[in-house]
Amino acid sequence: MVVTNLRYLIITKAHLGTNHASAHVKLPTNEPVTIVGFNPKEQLLTAHVYRSIDNEYLPRACATNLIGSGNASNVARNWNWHGWWHRVVIYGDFRRGLEEFTRLLGLGFA
Q1: What DSSP string describes 4-67?
Q2: Residue 27 CB: number of other CB atoms within 10 A?
Q3: What band does 76 get if pLDDT is binned at 50, 70 and 90?
Q4: Could you tell me the superkingdom of the organism this chain comes from (predicted)?
Q5: Environment class of 93 (CB within 10 Å of its CB; exposed 0-12, middle 13-18, buried 19+)
Q6: pLDDT at 27 over 90
Q7: Domain edges within the chain
Q8: Which of 23, 33, 49, 41 is nearest to 108 (CA)?
């Protein structure tokens, strides 16, 4: 998927009012997305697949927030509480590829 018409805002009061600017991008919705996080301490990659449903805009926040719909029970059961705050969003379902990737590198996968 290549998207060329994304709308964006430059937020100058982001980061809770500090002097840092952030970009808020309106991301495509109604698409499958894979959310990926990595915990270097535990050598664990986590991945969850959702359907993107909306964008959240908070002027004080530091970035784009994508709202997704998925199996919340499964996420809670497999949640890695030490997986850091920042995650990567990839459009599409990449669970199998990421699982193979972690196996080849000798990492854990959840």
Answers
A1: ---EEEEESSHHHHSS--EEEEE---SSEEEEEEEETTTTEEEEEEEEEEEEE--TTSSS-EEE
A2: 20
A3: confident
A4: Archaea
A5: middle
A6: no
A7: 28-109
A8: 41
